[in-house]
Design a protein that fits this description.
globular, alpha/beta, Rossmann fold, 7-stranded parallel beta sheet, 47% helix, 13% strand, binds nicotinamide-adenine-dinucleotide
Length: 283
């Protein structure tokens, strides 16, 4: 999709980090952006800031893990702006790491898969039929992770992100088979300076983790959060990469070139029928 001016984007997880970076990059190219998020205060604050800067944005509270909520978001976007051209299924949470697969709780799996995997699938199901039906050019961007391409220790997060990568590859083929004028991109970021490490701030009461509030765990989270913010790439830079990928119809985005080493290692292992070797440090 080459013309952005006057077109409409929906970005989930738009109140913070990469989603906010995408919102800024797309709005600065003249798009109207529906900003969807569960974190109401941050959403309203950022939407007001962008409105004051003369961008056309529409904040919408939506929980991507619920299909009914995403369906309401699609209805609200269409009611406000008519057609949706760009859909960024970006909302995601970090969770379930640091424990073996079998020790991650049902609540860990339900929360992480609910937002990271079902959130993306809900977006595709609720928006893509309408995007195909209006017949104009468009694009779907799904946020995976470098952890959705490489191998490594078990974590609900890594599993959810591999699912997003494969879902988006499937979407690419399905859109081509349908002759839709809609491109697809899977965004696989490395370390970005966002609030991802403190994702539990939005964890629903019904899916709480029993180790939450544990002092040792809180210390690790605080140190990781500081490191991501100090060493991570600026979210707006990721937003620019996404806008460029939409314009050039690029499928895979890796934000950090050196992360490709882990991808190569995984496919070399598969090619040589070797057991998985540990990926090089990614962050
Ligand atoms: N930051 C990184 O280093 C990194 C690396 C790889 C992938 N990612 C992915 O990037 C995406 C964006 O994360 P970020 O790093 O900007 O983190 P972030 O926490 O700064 O932003 C994520 C946003 O998603 C929102 N959100 C959480 N649950 C939601 C739900 N159920 N419905 C709607 N919105 C919800 C949060 O409120 C927040 O505003 C995620 O999918 C994440 O997995 C991040």
């Amino acid at each position: 999709m080459q013309v952005f001016q006057g077109k409409v984007a929906v970005v989930t997880g738009a109140a913070s980090g990469i989603g906010l970076g995408m919102t800024e990059a797309l709005a600065s190219r003249g798009m109207k952006v529906v900003m969807a998020d569960v974190e109401e205060a941050a959403l309203m604050k950022e939407a007001e800031r962008l409105t004051r800067a003369n961008f056309e944005v529409d904040p919408q509270l939506a929980d991507v893990s619920s299909y009914a909520s995403v369906e309401r978001l699609a209805a609200a976007a269409t009611a406000r702006f008519g057609k949706v051209h760009v859909l960024c299924n970006n909302a995601g949470v970090s969770g379930g790491g640091g424990k073996p697969i079998w020790a991650q709780s049902q609540a860990d799996w339900d929360w992480v898969m609910g937002v990271n995997f079902w959130g993306v699938l809900n977006g595709v199901r609720a928006f893509v039929p309408g995007m195909i039906a209006h017949g104009e050019e468009g694009h779907v961007v799904n946020t995976s992770s470098i952890l959705g391409l490489v191998t490594g220790a078990g974590s609900a997060y890594g599993v959810s992100k591999h699912a997003v990568t494969r879902l988006t590859e499937g979407l690419y083929f399905d859109l081509k088979a349908a002759n839709a004028k809609i491109g697809a991109t899977v965004l696989c970021p490395g370390m970005i300076a966002t609030n991802i490490i403190t994702s539990a701030r939005n964890r629903p009461e019904t899916l709480k983790d029993e180790s939450e509030g544990d002092a040792a765990r809180n210390q690790i989270i605080a140190a990781m959060d500081a490191r991501f913010k100090a060493e991570g790439m600026a979210p707006r830079e990721v937003g620019e990469k996404v806008a460029e990928a939409i314009a050039s119809d690029q499928f895979y985005i890796l934000t950090h070139a050196d992360n490709m080493e882990g991808v190569k290692r995984r496919f070399e292992d598969i090619h040589n029928l070797r057991s998985p070797s540990a990926p090089p440090p990614l962050i």
